[in-house]
Amino acid sequence: MSKPIRMRSYKTGALYFFNFFIRTKIFTLCSLIFNLCSQNMKYKYVFIDLDDTLWDFHTNAKLSLQDMFVHRKLNRHFTDFEEFFRIYAKRNIELWESYGKGEITKDFLMAERFRYPLSKMGVDDMKLAEEIGIQYLEILPAKTALMPYAIDLLEYLYPKYPLSIISNGFVEVQYKKLRSSGIEKYFSHIVLSEAANALKPDKQIFEYALELNGAKAAETIMIGDSYEADIRGAQNASIDQIYFPLKKNENFTDKPSTYYIQSLKDVFDIL
Ligand SMILES: [Mg+2]
């Protein structure tokens, strides 16, 4: 009498494992179908800005300027680093806006942003300003701070989309930043304004990037922190946009974009 019972128990066990195996496979298949359906299939290419979108420009610049302040003994001219930084940062923003509009040259920007704070302190030394400008561009790209979730985002996007950097930054600096922070490997193309012969928000730089990728504007999306350069630029080229502003409490009513995010991890819900 015991033999048939043992056989039944073997059969029951085998059936249990068979059912478990089938259910696991069905679950995996359903998850796969769900993931495929939940992906935004509209987009096939992703363009991303570098400074303050992936690479933490603000933190890295401040660290570099602190190094410079100590190395050049600028405490001879300023009360402290914060005083120097306050004057520098305000002028630097103005200069980048002018550079973006094509009003000033790269060389003027590099020297003027250091000449100005020195002249405010009564030091009119253009040679010193130019030397500091050159040394700053050597120190800055070696810094490695990235925006929160930048690596998580790239790890997430990289297997799904060809990624391209679209940046107005200088050639000799941007490649070093990408290498020192270890993110160059994620990108199919590094599109810089100097190579494209146009600065964001000019649609020419976006069209140049589309051509490099063999992509259409309608299947591409741009992620960036600058409304003026990244979002308006993408709009000029009829490319959808994900706006990732540095100031999270900004008023967005007059700044429309396809998507707006507060954290890079919010992109997981879009792409
Ligand atoms: Mg930026």
What's the β-strand tally? 6
What is the CATH class designation of the largest domain?
Alpha Beta
**N- and C-termini, Cα separation:** 62 Å
What is the string of SSEs from the N terminus onward? HEHHHHHEHEHHEHEE
CATH superfamily annotation of the largest domain: HAD superfamily/HAD-like
**Tally of DSSP helical segments:** 10
Overall number of domains: 2
The largest sheet is: 6 strands, parallel
Mean pLDDT score: 88
* Gross CATH architecture of the largest domain: 3-Layer(aba) Sandwich
Going across the biggest sheet, name each strand in turn.
Answer: 3-2-1-4-5-6
User: What are the bound molecules?
Assistant: magnesium ion
Choose one word for the global shape: globular
Strand residues, percent: 5-15%
Can you tell me the residue ranges where pLDDT is under 50 for at least 5 consecutive residues?
A: none
- Global Rg: 26 Å
Share of helical residues: 40-55%
What features would you describe in this structure?
- This protein is an alpha/beta fold.
- It folds into 2 domains: 41-55 and 146-269, Rossmann fold; 57-142, Putative phosphatase, domain 2 (DNA polymerase, domain 1, Orthogonal Bundle), CATH 1.10.150.240.
- 53% of the residues lie in helices and 9% in strands.
- The protein has helices spanning 2-38, 57-71, 81-100, 106-120, 126-139, 150-157, 171-180, 193-196, 203-213, 227-236; strands at residues 45-48, 163-167, 189-192, 220-224, 240-243, 259-260.
- Strands 3-2-1-4-5-6 form a 6-stranded parallel beta sheet, with helices on both faces.
- Strand 2 (163-167), helix 7 (171-180) and strand 3 (189-192) form a beta-alpha-beta unit.
- Helix 2 (57-71) packs across helix 5 and helix 4 (106-120) crosses helix 5 (126-139).
- The longest helix is centred in the first third of the chain and has 37 residues, at 2-38.
- The protein is globular.
- The model has no long low-confidence stretch (mean pLDDT 88).
